[in-house]
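Team,

Forwarding the record for the chain on the shared tracking sheet. I've put the sequence and predicted structure together so nobody has to dig through attachments.
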Amino acid sequence: MAAVLDTQVSLDALAQRPAPALPENFVYDIAKRATDVVLGTLLLILTAPLMLIAALLVKITSRGPVVFRQTRAGRGELPFTMYKFRTMRVGAEDDRTFLGHRNEKDGPVFKISDDPRLTPLGRLLRRSSIDELPQLFNVLAGHMSLVGPRPLWMPESLKIQGPERIRLAVKPGLTCLWQISGRSDLSFAQWMSLDQYYVQHRSLLLDALIMIQTLPVVLSGQGAY
């Protein structure tokens, strides 16, 4: 079992750990940003009724805020606040210390398939990936892209070493190769390999193929917990 994560990792370490740089591709970057804004706005409009229902259900079924905020590692490992619908009880982050022995993942990540911290509604939101919809606001704000490596919790990201850090050279995404290839059913090494492949072969065509495959995977609930 992986050891429990140290939640006290200092953000000062960021200055000592420069993220890998990639050759500039202004045409791709501009086209990708335009795609994020146009499709992100459309998705936000289309999912607004679903998000409203989810927000109301979170509010009336458990105590605590509707939206969960957490500091994640963005491009260049710069921290940003990522949004999700709250799926756990209040104080769940503090329980990592007591649940460390139940961690089912290798590497620096923390995952439990039958997490006791989840609320009944939270399990449904996780399974359907509805909890991720507020990240459309992160996409429109420019912190994230529709497609890119999933953003890790900052203490987890700071523990990544070597070639795997290339994932930090691009914006994190709402969906990615990991998302459509098994998600939490994959090992950490498989996850990082998929991220490395994406960064090294990124293109608008690859982004389109990933987005097309995301919906059926989300509907199946594969690897979502």
